[in-house]
Amino acid sequence: MNFRKKVQTKMKKTIIIIVAIIISGFSANVMAQATKNTTAGAKIVAPITITETSSLNFGTMAVLASTAGTCVLSTQGVRTATGGVNLSAQTPIAANAAYTVGGAISTTYAITLPSSITVSDLSTHTMTINSLLARTASAGTNGLTGTLSGTGTDSFTIGGTLNVAAAQVAAVYSGTFNVTVAYN
């Protein structure tokens, strides 16, 4: 009987030691990591909008048969001619393309213009408009960045250079182009 008690006592001690080792192993693992509850979020702003208030028109002009030229329309509506182009005051008169922009209050935005525009007389005769510039009301200078006001609005105008070939065919020329605005 004495032998049996010794064995039972040894088994109890062994079980206690094993349980102690297992418990200490779990507690070591628990102390090897930490958790922090944190936050996540997002902000949704009003979509940016663009509305055309005036189309780009270089007005009426003539060109010499032997000399090409250009008609430059500044972003402030000033029209000048080079080479063989002679400007006229007849209708249609020159007008800048003009746009209003709406969106998130006091946010900057970028304007993307094409590198060139082709206009045609709906036949085979074409002219190219290039050197496009924009002028925002918020900046007051030529550039491709504007800032929406405290009411979430701004406006801008576009000017450029119409390239007229010598003896360009007399006709009404038109074409389309894309203007894009996006938040910075």
Please provide a written account of the structure.
By secondary structure, this protein is an alpha+beta fold. The protein folds into two domains: 1-34; 49-183, Immunoglobulin-like. The protein contains one helix and twelve strands, in the order αββββββββββββ. The model has no long low-confidence stretch (mean pLDDT 92).
Short description:
The chain has one helix and twelve strands. The chain has 184 residues and is of the alpha+beta class. It has two domains: 1-34; 49-183, Immunoglobulin-like.
How many beta strands in the DSSP annotation? 12
Q: Please tell me the overall pLDDT.
A: 92
**Proportion of helical residues:** 10-25%
The helix/strand series, from N terminus to C terminus, equals HEEEEEEEEEEEE
Rounded to an integer in angstroms, the radius of gyration calculated over CA atoms is 37 Å
- Strand content is 35-45%
- What best-fitting shape do the alpha-carbon axes yield? rod-shaped
CATH class of the largest domain: Mainly Beta
CATH-derived topology of the largest domain: Immunoglobulin-like
CATH second-level architecture of the largest domain: Sandwich
Largest sheet: 7 strands, antiparallel
Distance between the termini: 89 Å
Number of domains: 2
Low-confidence stretches: none
How many helices does DSSP assign?
Answer: 1
List keywords for this structure.
Immunoglobulin-like, 3-stranded antiparallel beta sheet, single chain, 184 residues, 1 helix, alpha+beta, 7-stranded antiparallel beta sheet
